[in-house]
Structure formats: structure tokens, C-alpha cells
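Standup notes
- DV: blocked on the single-chain target, sequence here:
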Amino acid sequence: MTSATADQVATEAKPTMSVSLWSKHLKLLAIASLAILAIFWRDGADMVRNWWNISTYNHCLLILPILYYLVQQRQEELAKLTPQIWLPGLLLTGIASFGWLLGEAAGVALARHLGLLMMLQGAVVTLLGPTVARGLIFPLGFSFFLVPFGEEFVPFLQMVTAKLSMVFLGWADIPAFIDGVFISTPTGYFEVAEACSGIKFLIAMLAYGALVSNICFRSWKRRILFMTAAVIVPVLANGIRAFGTMYIAHHTTLDFAAGFDHIFYGWFFFAFVLILVMAIGWPFFDRKIDDPMIDGDALSGKQNLPATGEKPLKVMAAMAAIILIPVIWTSALAAQESPVPDRISLPDVAGWERVDYQPLYPWQPVFDRSSHQLFGRYRNASTGTEVDLSIAVYDRQEEGREIVGYGQGALVPNTRWSWNRDLDAPDGAVAIELVAPGPVVRDVVSFYRIGGKLTGSGSVVKLETMKSRIFGGQQQAVAILVSSETNRDVSSRMSIDAFLNDLGPVDKLADEMAGLR
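- DV (later): unblocked, structure below
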């Protein structure tokens, strides 16, 4: 056989060998991915439910087909690379697994969802190698938009929207007064509610901005500027939308303004801002339509292949161990008992008597699936002022049984009660002001007792829950809420403070309710 013929055979054999190698590694990746999804199917199903049922995350339903499209864009260049097993990729899997453990222990869905996604990313890096992962760097990064996030920014965005509205109302010479997220004008009383925060629009624009930045730009400076516009323009536009509703109401009627806002925002507003952002960026697009998204030859030239490959079975076994250890550990600790009393009752408080609950506007905090929940009204025998006391006791916390979380506690979603502002609170507590139609104002002071700590911080509650569920120990948790309502322009905090003074140490009451004293 001549030298030319040998070279030709080698050249023809290389693509065949590469296809076979890709097939082998993709099969390993499919097995690992399916195993991860099977083990953590509850978290995966929870993510899908959020995508489908919560409008803030509806855009996530488009992320999967977009990811497929992004990989297809790179397929021809990726074929020039050689997949390989890369042991350091197990480190990413380990970090993800540990993150899931923290989320499971603390009852933080975001951490569990993020951990699941990163375990899948770790499988890609481990089973396809670092060079292929570099070729897939944007699809891997873009996949983070599959994780439902952003609700924690709603109060901040409510305040931003309210303050922007006040600026625009001032420019329009419309008299207005702001009280938290409530704005009064000569026409009426407006609330910048959670739905008006613009969070769903902002998150969708972040995903869209990232996609356009990758597909349409090559310059990192231009990408950063476009992403900045994708954040700032929606926030400003949302402030203008809220102002527009008040402006229209000022010149027409409240009903007309509400109807116009619903139709305009629901059908035209998002499209208009989307077009505006694209119009801003269009003149600066610097990627040609036929430019490859990655340079396979350049990546291949930098690829260092090991002389001997790692054993696939050993790597898959190591990955399985890294993933399963946290699951087994948390399951074992979950079997530990943390009993609470069979019955509890509201305490007697010197100088106060129990009376019937007759609110100015119905309200009661929510603590789903608590072991015990009590609620009662007290009246001061000398001053006649009234306060409400709520106590919730959990023997343990788990999925759907968190003492702190969305829809838990003082602010109940899908009611006419709205958060208005944070208030100064006693030590070991958090205080908020709620407002209902009337308006009726209710100040609520919330204490949480867990792990021997009295706190008003949801983060501390999550941390103590996590510690007890990782290292073992007492898992009982108690919430004590003291509140008072008024329809007058006076603070109800004096009544709350007087009741707390007569109630005595809150931590002792909480321990008694949990059966720890």
C-alpha cells in the first residue's frame, strides 16, 4: 500500500471513528441525565409545574426548544471535536449535589432546582470533556433560565415602580401622595400590587436579551450594553405604564383606566418594549448571519487528549455516589422524631381578656400543614385596645410544610390584603404593615423560634432548619404573630408593644408550645 493510499484510509477512518466516539459518549450522557432526572423527579416536576402554572415563568416553556436550536447551531463545528471523559467535571457535579442538599435541608426550592440543573451540566462536562463544554458554554449558561427565580425581587420592584410613577406624576402636574406602594391622587387610591411590579416582564427580557446578545453580537462591550438596555428599559417602561394608568384615570374614570391598562399591558405593551429594545440594538449588530457560533477548528487545535481514557463504568459509578449520598443522608435524618404536645391552648395574659374576633376586614395568617395553629383576639381591660395573637407549631419542616415561604405567614396571596412597608420591629422579630380596602391598616409583628433562636429573619429560619436537617437535632419550629388593626390615621404599634410587654418572653412561650420546656 502506498503512502498516499494509507493517508487516504486514515483520513476516511477518522470521521468514522469520531462518529462512533460521539455516539458512545452521547449514550453515556443520556443514561446519566435520565438517571439524574429519575432520582430528582419531584424537583423536575415542580419546575415544570411552575413553568406551566405561574405566569412569571411561562417563558421557561420556550427555553428547552431554544436550547435545542442553540445546540443545532453548533452541531457542525462540534463534530470537529473529540468527546472525552474528564474527571474534574465531577467537581461541578459535587458542588451541585451539595447545593441540592442545602436546598433540601433548608426547604429552599430555588437551591434544589439549581442543584438539579447543575448536576445535568456536570454530567455534560464530565462525559463530553472540557473542550466540548467550551463549545457549548452559551447553551449551558442559557439553561440557567430554566430555573424559576425572581419572586424575591417583587417588593423591591414594587417600590421602584411606585417611585417612578411619582416622578412622572410630578412632571404631569398631577397632585399625588405616596405611602409605601400606595399612591393617592385626586382621582382615587392606587396600589402598585405584585402584578404591577413588572417582574415577569423583566425576567423574560433578561432571557431574551441574553439570547440576542449571543446570536447578534460578537463584541463583549456591545453585549454588555445591550443587556443593560434589556434591564433598564423594561423597568422604566413599567413605571411609565403604572403612571399611564393613573394619568388616564385622572382624565377619565377609574374603570376606564383599569380596562385600558389590562388590554394595553396584556396585548401590546410587552411587544412594544420588545420592539423598542431591538430597535436600540439593531444598528450595532456585528455578527453576520452566516458566521459560525463557535470555531471548531480553533477549539480542536487546543484540545489535549489523554493517552488512555478513563473507564466509563468507574466514572459513572463515582457520579452516582456523589449524587446519591445527599439523598440517602437527608432521608435517614428525616426519619428522626421531633414530637410536639398533642394539644396546646392560647396563653392567659395579665390585664387582657379573650374576646370574639370581629375584624374591620377579615384576616388570618396561613401556616399550611402545621401541627397546631391557634388564633385569638385579646382586649386590654383598662384601655379597651385590641390585638390578635396567632401561634403555629411544626414538629418538623419538609416540602409543603415550611414555616417561612411564599404564601406562609402574615401576607396571604390572592386576598385583598397587600404589603405596604416594613416597620421597625422588636428584637428577634420582623414587622410589616398590611393594607386592605377601606383602607384598613394592620401592623403585624412576627417571631420565629427554631434551633434555640428567636428571630424575625426568614434567612435565619432557613439556616437553622438546614442545620438541624443536615446534622440532626431538634426540628420543632414555632411562629408567634401579634397584630392589631385600625382604620384611623394612628399607629397600632402601641397596643402591640403593650401586649408583648404583658405577654412576657416570647421565646419561653414558643418553647412551651413546642413541648421543649
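- Follow-up: The longest strand covers residues 440-450.
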